[in-house]
Amino acid sequence: MRLYLEVMRLSFRRYTAYGAANLAGLVTNAFFGIVRTYVFVALFASRPSAGGYDLPDAITYVWLSQALIMPVLMWGWDEIALTVRTGDVASDLSKPFDYFAYWLSRDLGRACYHVLYRSVPTLVLGAVLFGIRLPDSPTTWLSFGLSLLLAVALGFCVRFIINVSAFWVVDVRGLNGIVLLGVNFLSGMLVPLAFFPPEVRGLVETLPFAGMVNTPVSIWLGHARGSGAIALLLQEVVWAVVLIALCELVVGLATRKLVVQGG
Q1: In Å, what is the CA distance from 117 to each residue of 7, 33, 156?
Q2: pLDDT digit of tens for each residue in the chain (263 aa)?
Q3: How many Cβ atoms sit within 10 Å of the Cβ of residue 175?
Q4: Separation CA 9–CA 16 (nearest Å)
Q5: Residue 53 β-bridge partners
Q6: Fewer Cβ in 10 A, N or C end of the chain?
Q7: CA nearest 11: which of 148, 103, 133?
Q8: Among the listed residues 106, 105, 121, 103, the one whose alpha carbon sits nearest the alpha carbon of residue 22
Q9: Can you say how many angstroms the Cα of residue 134 is from the centroid of all Cα atoms in its chain?
Q10: Cα separation of 204 and 210, whole Å?
Q11: In terms of Cα–Cα distance, which of 60, 55, 29 is closest to 135?
């Protein structure tokens, strides 16, 4: 366990070296946050509510989803795929640690950095410009924190499986783009799942992708409280366990393929 904690710490320190890149990301977050906010302002100008959201809820959703982009890392990431392409993966797999746990530890360190240096400033900016809603109880804050941790794990598992597919495909960038476009839509990053048609919403909310954005947002806004929040957290836990098991299975299959190829 100490090894993985040290990996997390070093990963956190690694990202502190990219201050200029983080600042540029904050500016981008702010720009799209403002644009998306005024889209919802225009939408709610003609109706008081939609899908259980009123205008303050929608504005809070915008800035919270913007704040979740980097911790959950909804966009492309190919660090593992690059090690497969260069052959460095053979060295990683031969080291005395669990391959999946090692990369998960690295990603948790990265996520901690982005929570502090990307999410918090984004939410502060949203609060200053538009007065977003904040959780109204310590229990909600705690539930949100747990949900965020699970959302990071779910996001990493999806990216991990895509990256390990580099053992079978020449270039993962096409697959990465297709899958993550769907993930962004099905997670509630682009549009709240509450806006989906009722016959589709029930299904989408049971998928693991909902746990990446929709669940943290629902808990933050207070749309899920008490037993409702517990049910959503348990759903995240179940999917995290399933996806982690799937990741370990894929690593086993990939390792077997690497040996067969003589790599």
Answers
A1: 19, 17, 19
A2: 789 999 999 999 999 998 898 999 999 999 999 999 999 999 899 888 888 899 999 999 999 999 999 999 877 788 888 888 888 888 888 888 899 999 999 999 999 999 999 999 999 999 999 999 999 899 999 999 999 999 999 999 999 999 998 888 878 888 888 888 888 899 999 999 999 998 899 999 999 999 999 999 999 999 999 999 999 999 999 999 999 999 999 998 888 766 544 44
A3: 16
A4: 11
A5: 50
A6: N
A7: 103
A8: 121
A9: 20
A10: 7
A11: 60
- Which two structure tokens, joined as six digits, stand for 227? 């037993």
- Report residue 125: phi and psi, to 5°: -65, -40
- Please give the Cα distance from 118 to 106 (Å, whole number): 17
Residue type, 197: P
CA–CA gap between residue 251 and residue 245 (Å, rounded): 10
Contact between residue 220 and residue 135 where contact means Cβ atoms under 8 Å apart: yes
DSSP 225: -
Structure tokens at 229: 């929040």
Contact 139, 57 (CB under 8 A): no
| Full DSSP string of 123-157 | HHHHHHHH-----SSHHHHHHHHHHHHHHHHHHHH
